[in-house]
Design goal:
Blueprint: H1 4-16, H2 26-46, H3 48-51, H4 72-86, E1 102-110, E2 116-123, H5 130-140, E3 155-163, E4 169-171
Antiparallel strand pairs: 1-2, 1-3, 3-4
Helix pairs in contact: 1-2
């Protein structure tokens, strides 16, 4: 990570590469100045979002009850509520903002004892650091509610996770919507 002096040096180097001559108009100079400010702001804004996704906190959930549902869609709601119970400090309360940091769709297979058999990415998020964070969060939330009423005692479902840049999330099946 660069210090304040390092960022200032980068901006000055970028300004040197933006050839300003005597023929450059006032509007051109203003445009170049704003691009330097945007470059400096870019250095400051790109780094903080990564810290939220560097680790998954320990889950706080207790042993789940067997799921009373026999339908994949209903079990998906039970699983999302279980993940919410495991990570209450990471759940986005209220309606999500209009622009999200990452939207990720995952397919999760839960075994007869509630263990996570497999988690695969169906739709990759635009922010690369979100995918391993969501997958780790799902795996650490095990054991899930037992899928006792499902054929073979296992269930496979698809869930979409909406992730804010603050590191808070909502699951599609229990989302509160978006502003």
């Amino acid at each position: 990570m660069r210090g304040v002096g390092g960022t200032r040096r980068c901006v000055l180097e970028a300004a040197k590469n933006m050839h300003i001559s005597r023929k450059t108009t006032a509007a051109g100079r203003l445009r170049l100045a704003f691009s330097g400010v945007a470059l400096a702001a870019g250095f400051g804004l790109a780094l903080p979002a990564l810290a939220q996704f560097s680790m998954v906190p320990a889950p706080l959930c207790s042993a789940p009850q067997p799921s009373a549902t026999g339908d994949e869609r209903e079990y998906r709601v039970d699983a999302a509520k279980h993940v919410y119970a495991c990570y209450p400090m990471r759940v986005y309360r209220g309606k999500l903002p209009p622009l999200l940091y990452g939207v990720m769709m995952v397919e999760t297979e839960i075994g007869a004892t509630g263990e996570v058999v497999n988690v695969s990415v169906v739709r990759k998020p635009a922010a690369d650091e979100v995918a391993p964070w969501v997958i780790a969060m799902i795996k650490r939330a095990a054991p899930f509610p037992l899928p006792a009423k499902h054929p073979g005692g296992t269930v496979k479902f698809t869930e979409t996770y909406f992730v804010d840049k603050s590191g808070l999330f909502q699951a599609f099946s229990v989302t509160e919507g978006q502003r």
